[in-house]
Amino acid sequence: xxxxxxxxxxxxxxxxxxxxxxxxxxxxxxxxxxxxxxxxxxxxxxxxxxxxxxxxxxxxxxxxxxxxxxxxxxxxxxxxxxxxxxxxxxxxxxxxxxxxxxxxxxxxxxxxxxxxxxxxxxxxxxxxxxxxxxxxxxxxxxxxxxxxxxx
Length: 151
Fold this sequence. Notes:
This protein has no helices and eleven strands. By secondary structure, the chain is an all-beta fold.
């Protein structure tokens, strides 16, 4: 037996993962073509339609690091969330407008670390970043301000 269900509007898994409908089944091959009620549960499949969203707190995104910090010193941890389901929620972190000479961004885990180049004491360094999923959906850009010294 088969049938067809046609949606009259958009179904979005992030709003509702499933929907229950009441339908009526009629067997026209039977001599008694009576409709029988049946409940149908529709599971909504995921589309890669959501962009990653920043989850870092508080805003603005501020960090501080010793001017003489050795290479690999953690400075800031980017965090984001993509409400799509796996594998549609996989994303990477990127620097915008080129690579920083003083800091390294791990594209997979979002950790910003020092490269070991000398930093000028009490100077602010800025990195603009974004997160992008496999479909190209991009988060808003985020600006990270890193002070060489105390804030």
